[in-house]
Q: What sequence folds into this?
C-alpha cells in the first residue's frame, strides 16, 4: 500500500508540471536546460544517500544511444513546454499522451513485436479521440491560445518521447536509474549550445517567482519525482503501474480546470477518454480472460 501511495504522489507531481512551467518567465529551451541540469545533479547527489548504484562508466554503444536519447528527451521537453504556451494544459497533455500510441505503431517494425487486433483497435480509438479533442468545429484561436499550433507541439513532443522509449529498449548493462541520470546529463549538455545560440542568457531581471518555480520543476518534478519513482517501481506489478500511470494525465486536466479555469467541452472530453483508454485497451490480455 505504501508503494502505491508513493507512486500516486509521483503521478500527481508529474501531472502538475504544466501549472509551474506556464508561469516561468523563460523560454521553453531555457526551462528544459535547467530542468535537466538541476534534475541530474539532484539524482547524482541522491545516489550517494540511497541504495541506488550509479557509475559514469558505459559502453561505446550505450554512449551513442544515451546521446541520441538525451537529445530527444531535451527537445521533447522544449516542444511540450511550447505546447503549454499555445494551448490548454488539457490539450497539451492529451496530445503528449499519444506517445504510447506511436510506440504501438512502431514496435512491430523496430522491435519485431506482433500486431494484434486489440492494438489495432487501440490505435483506431486513439486517432478518433484525437480528432474529437482537436474538434475542428470549434474556434481554434482564442485569446493567447492557438490550439492547432499547441497540439502540433504536443504531438512533436510525443514523437520525441517515443524515440526515447524505443532507444531505451536497446540500452544494455545500465539500470533504469543510471539511464535516467545519464539521459538528463546528456540532455543538458546538448541543450546548452542550442540555448547559447538562441537565447541571450541574461538572468539579472528574472523575478523571484520564476526562479522558485524553476527550482521546483528541476528538483521536485524531475529529481525527487524520478527518485521516488524508481524507489517503488520494482515493488509494484506491471498492471498496477499501467493503471496508476493514468493519474498523471487525468490529474493534469483536473488541476488545470480547477486552478486555471481551463475547460473542455463534452466532445473533447469523450476524445480524451478515447485517447487514454486506447493504450489501456491495447494491453488487455484477452487470451487469459478466455481461459479463466
A:
Amino acid at each position: 500500500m505504501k508503494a502505491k501511495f508513493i507512486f500516486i504522489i509521483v503521478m500527481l507531481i508529474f501531472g502538475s508540471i504544466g501549472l509551474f512551467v506556464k508561469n516561468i518567465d523563460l523560454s521553453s529551451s531555457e526551462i528544459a536546460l535547467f530542468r535537466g541540469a538541476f534534475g541530474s545533479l539532484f539524482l547524482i547527489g541522491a545516489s550517494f544517500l540511497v541504495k541506488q548504484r550509479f557509475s559514469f562508466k558505459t559502453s561505446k554503444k550505450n554512449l551513442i544511444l544515451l546521446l541520441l536519447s538525451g537529445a530527444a528527451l531535451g527537445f521533447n521537453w522544449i516542444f511540450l513546454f511550447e505546447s503549454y504556451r499555445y494551448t490548454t494544459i488539457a490539450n497539451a497533455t492529451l496530445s503528449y499522451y499519444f506517445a504510447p500510441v506511436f510506440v504501438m505503431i512502431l514496435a512491430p517494425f523496430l522491435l519485431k513485436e506482433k500486431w494484434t487486433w486489440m492494438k489495432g483497435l487501440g490505435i483506431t480509438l486513439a486517432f478518433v479521440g484525437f480528432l474529437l479533442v482537436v474538434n475542428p468545429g470549434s474556434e481554434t484561436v482564442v485569446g493567447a491560445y492557438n490550439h492547432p499550433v499547441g497540439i502540433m507541439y504536443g504531438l512533436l513532443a510525443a514523437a520525441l518521447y517515443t524515440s526515447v522509449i524505443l532507444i531505451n529498449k536497446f540500452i544494455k548493462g545500465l539500470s533504469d536509474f543510471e539511464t535516467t541520470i545519464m539521459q538528463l546529463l546528456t540532455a543538458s549538455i546538448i541543450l546548452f549550445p542550442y540555448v547559447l545560440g538562441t537565447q541571450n542568457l541574461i538572468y539579472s531581471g528574472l523575478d523571484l517567482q520564476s526562479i522558485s518555480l524553476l527550482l521546483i520543476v528541476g528538483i521536485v518534478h524531475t529529481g525527487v519525482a524520478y527518485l521516488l519513482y524508481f524507489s517503488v517501481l520494482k515493488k509494484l506489478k506491471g498492471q498496477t503501474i499501467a493503471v496508476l500511470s493514468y493519474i498523471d494525465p487525468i490529474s493534469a486536466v483536473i488541476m488545470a480546470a480547477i486552478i486555471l479555469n481551463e475547460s473542455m467541452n463534452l466532445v473533447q472530453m469523450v476524445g480524451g477518454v478515447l485517447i487514454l483508454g486506447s493504450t489501456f485497451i491495447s494491453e488487455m490480455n484477452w487470451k487469459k480472460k478466455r481461459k479463466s
Notes: The chain has 14 helices and two strands. The first helix runs from residue 2 to 15. Residues 2-291 form one domain.
